[in-house]
């Protein structure tokens, strides 16, 4: 699924592939998990800065719940 929002296009991973991606994520090491958590924090900060910019983020794509560890 994708959404075009002005000059930006936002994509969502197809439902059929989410299970595979979650399975691959289980094999990551603790160092990778720490790195991924830091990336997630930086991504949240970047998204917050977008709120009033020319790239506000998707409006129609469904927000997915985070998988429980």
Order of helices and strands: EEHH
Task: Note the beta-strand portion.
Answer: 5-15%
In order across it, which strands form the biggest sheet?
1-2
Please provide the count of β strands.
2
Q: Share of helix among residues?
A: 40-55%
Task: Report the major sheet.
Answer: 2 strands, antiparallel
Q: How far is it from the N-terminal to the C-terminal residue, by CA?
A: 25 Å
Counted by DSSP, the helix tally is 2
Structural class category: alpha+beta
**Rounded radius of gyration (Å):** 14 Å
Low-confidence stretches: none
- Overall tally of domains: 1
Mean pLDDT across the residues is: 76
3D structure, described in words:
With 69 residues, the protein is an alpha+beta fold. The chain has one domain (2-50). Helices cover 46% and strands 12% of the residues. The protein has 2 helices and 2 strands, in the order E-E-H-H. It has a two-stranded antiparallel sheet. Strand 1 and strand 2 (8-11) form a beta hairpin. It is flat and about 40 Å long. The two termini are 25 Å apart.
Note the topology.
Elements: E1 2-5, E2 8-11, H1 15-25, H2 30-50
